[in-house]
Each structure stands twice: as structure tokens, then as C-alpha cells.
Amino acid sequence: MSRIASIGMVLIFAATVIFHLLVLTSVIPFTIVGGGRITSQSEMYPLETTALLLNIFFLFIALVQADYVRLRVSPKILSGVLWVMFGTFLLNTVGNLFSNSQLEKLIFTTITLILAAFSAILAISRTSKTA
Prior knowledge:
This protein is mostly helical and 131 residues long. The protein is 76% helix and 0% strand.
């Protein structure tokens, strides 16, 4: 199960990084992000840049977790980061439920819920290995 979660996280984060790049370059309209509350491109840039950087960080953690990137990191630290990711995605899932954009509500609520589940699976797996 943890192998599926690892690969799933890598794939979802890679796709999410591409998605945010497409929003930043106006290929995808910014009206479907930020809860549908962004009213201008000048509001979109800081939000999307932050989202992009966070997702690149999450992708890196997923790559380390899946052993695609070899990095000497304490298993306890990696487990802690995965628990923080779990909490972040759980809160984001709740936030997406209140989005004004039906597309964001439908697609991203599901994605963040899956990411929360994957993060919990991997954190539990890491915690049981370090105990």
C-alpha cells in the first residue's frame, strides 16, 4: 500500500506543478484557483507562485520518500514532514469544499483528500519503521 501511495504522490505532485505553471502562464484561467475569489492577474501571481513552490517542495519530499532521490534524512524528520503534509492536505480539503469554483470544489477536493490519505499512509509506514 505504501508503494502505491509513494508513486501516487509523485504523479499527483508532478501534475500539480505543471498545472500551476499553466495557470501562471495563463494557459489555464486563474478563476478556477484560489477558491474562485481571485479577481485579477496581479492577485493571482503571488498566490500561484507560492502554490507552485509548495508543490515543488512536496514533490521533492515525495521523491525522497519513494527513494527516487537519495538524500540522507532522518526517518523521524521525514515522518514528521509527512504528518505535516497530512494536516495541510486535510485542511486544504475542507477549504476546497467552500470554494466558489465548482470545478475546484469537484476536482481539487478529491485530489487533496487523496493526498491526505497518501501522506497518512506513508507517515504511519515511516513511524512503524522507526519505532
